[in-house]
Amino acid sequence: MSSCEYFVEETQKRAVARVDDNYLYDSDLKDISAGLEDTDSVVVVNEFIKKWAKRQLMLAKARLNTSTSKKIDDIVKEYRYDLIIDNYVQQIVNKYSDSLVSEDDVVDFYNSNKNSFILNRPISKINFMEVKLDAPNIKDAEEWFLSKNEEDKLKLKDYCFEYAKNYHLDDSTWIYADDIIDKIPILSTKRKLFEEKLKKDNLFLGLKDSINNYFVLIKENLIKGEISPIFFVKPMIINTLNNKKKIEFIEKMENNLLENAIKKQQFEIFDNNDN
What we know:
Layout: H1 3-12, E1 15-19, E2 22-25, H2 38-65, H3 69-100, H4 103-112, E3 123-132, H5 138-146, H6 150-163, E4 166-176, H7 177-183, H8 185-188, H9 191-197, E5 203-208, E6 212-222, H10 230-263
Helix pairs in contact: 3-10, 4-10, 5-6
């Protein structure tokens, strides 16, 4: 290194403290005192330097007086290797994650494991909305709520967006029935009665209290103990299969790497047996 290069490096990186061969540089302090008055800044910086020095001295003392230093270094090194590998593997898996599990995989897994998908809570295909008693056009909203006409469904969606305190307008999706009960106060107070009604399909309930109107349309129900429909457990199946296929994918990748390394003489095991 020339004297000019040394001078530039020294001006760019100025040491402010030293413990043995370990240096603390001004660049390490640049964010410590940001936004502070000069007097406060000096105090904060000095405290930081002392804390840094104590840490370095304790570390040196610990390394000198314990037999676990090498073991810790080995653990840190192994952990670093694992992080690098895990990060690489995650990138590869993410790249191919969409193609890991097919629709046929989901159906096959579901059909082979139906007894694992027994409902422990009732589920329903259900619509509901909660609107104040003084909301406009309540009668129209009730007609739209019961209608199967697509135009009426759009009107209802716009109405709920503007006036409903709470609503769910997707009766093609299975949801836990007691989640609906918890969202509607008047149903919570009559939980037992409503749970009995949940055993019936194609049921409409029009309820009100002193504040709100509640409209509930139950299209279909499955009770506790029945087998979950595939679409209800599909996310769980995909997650299970993804994890399984990720493990298989990683094992295959590792084995391919090993085989290729042997072929290219990048990896070999030495025979040290004395014959």
